[in-house]
Design goal:
Helix content is about 30%, strand content about 25%. It has about 260 residues and is of the alpha/beta class.
């Protein structure tokens, strides 16, 4: 199994995952042209995709979904409430390209099994995904206000994580956002801060965990170096050996990460 975080942040999100004959795009929150460029960067073709998996209907996750799906005649997978919320936002999609992927279920494609699980975010029915290939496990989890014990049970001991580390609390509190936006981000249906993300990571990291990609960083209320430092310090204080056991990686709103093999 291989993956690349194509883009991550409030300006657009997209993740590519492949295994054997199957490959998936998780969200397409950028324009069709931008998505084309991202795929060129990782030397892959959107026409080869098995389908698009949608996490929730916010524009930074679905902006290019309709365009890409129509152009390449790709199946789109989402749960019923997300379909109802995003239908007016992505344009008309042929019925034969619309598939329902319920929360807390598993779909299998060849040797790849994809498990969906719910998160806590201010969307219709937000959910993210765990990819299983044999004993290999990749977890994608962003856009959640907190990480519950139920989520931790589902995502524990993965080989690789793409994990939200959205904001630094002090930067957010002192920043330019209106208070109602700050309150939303800090709420249980908002986004996870650096320290809370690291605490959750320390509770799910297992013996086989090797890679953590810090994702969905706020452009205004976080910085890559700060996120890496905050998460790293918290992990080390809780007994996680960085560099020896686990490596932290940055993600970017515009530049895909290198393809990582699990």
């Amino acid at each position: 199994m291989r993956f690349s975080v194509l883009a991550s942040g409030s300006t657009g999100n997209a993740i590519f995952v492949e295994s054997g004959e199957h490959s998936f795009l998780v969200d397409a929150g950028l324009s069709g042209k931008q998505m084309e460029g991202l795929f060129q960067s990782i030397e892959r073709k959107m026409s080869d995709l098995t389908g698009i998996l949608v996490t929730h209907e916010h524009s930074d996750h679905i902006k290019g979904v309709g365009i890409v799906a129509r152009k390449y005649k790709l199946p789109i997978y989402a749960n019923e409430k997300t379909w109802n919320a995003m239908n007016p936002l992505i344009g008309e999609i042929p019925t034969e390209q619309k598939f329902q992927f319920d929360m807390e279920t598993v779909k299998t494609f060849g040797n790849l099994s994809i498990e969906s699980f719910g998160v806590s975010h201010d969307a219709a029915e937000p959910m993210f995904y765990v990819f299983h290939e044999g004993e290999k496990k990749l977890v994608l989890i962003t856009d959640t206000g907190y990480v519950s014990d139920r989520m931790k049970g589902i995502i524990s001991n993965a080989d690789s994580y793409v994990f939200e580390s959205n904001h630094d609390v002090q930067m957010l509190r002192m920043g330019k956002y209106p208070w109602n936006i700050k309150r939303r981000i800090l709420s249980d249906v908002g986004h996870v801060c650096n320290e809370d993300a690291a605490i959750a990571m320390s509770e799910v990291i297992g013996d086989r965990t090797k890679h953590i990609y810090l994702a969905h960083l706020s452009l205004d209320n976080n910085m890559k170096d700060l996120a890496r430092m905050s998460v790293g310090q918290t992990l080390e204080s809780r007994g996680v050996g960085l560099g020896e056991q686990v490596n932290l990686f940055d993600t970017d709103p515009r530049i895909p990460t290198k393809m990582m093999a699990i």
